[in-house]
Amino acid sequence: MTPPYMIWRRHATPASTGYARNKADLAQFWEGADLEIEGAPVDSAAVRFNIFQVLQAAGRGGKTSICAKGQTGEGYEGHYFWDAEIFGLPLLGHSRPERARDMLVYRHRSLEDSRRHAREMGHERGALIAWRTISGRECSAYFPAGSAQYHINADVAFAIEHYMALTGDSAFLHDHGAEILFETARIWPQIGFFNPRKDGAFCIHCVTGPDEYTALVNNNFYTNAMARQHLDYAYQVAHALMADAPDVFARIANAIGLHEDEITEWRRAADAMYLPYDEALGIHPQDDSFLDKKRWDISGTPKDKFPLLLHYHPLTIYRHQVCKQADTVLAMVLLGDQFAPADKARDLRYYEDVTVHDSTLSACVFGMLASQVGRLEQAHEYFRHAAFVDLGDLHKNTGHGLHMASLGGSWMCLVNGFAGLRFVEGRPVFSPVLPDQWQGLSFRIRVRGRIILVRIGKNRCRYRLISGAPLTIQHHDQPLELKPDETIEAATLGKEPA
Ligand code: IFM
Question: Does 354 share its domain with 471?
Answer without folding.
Answer: no
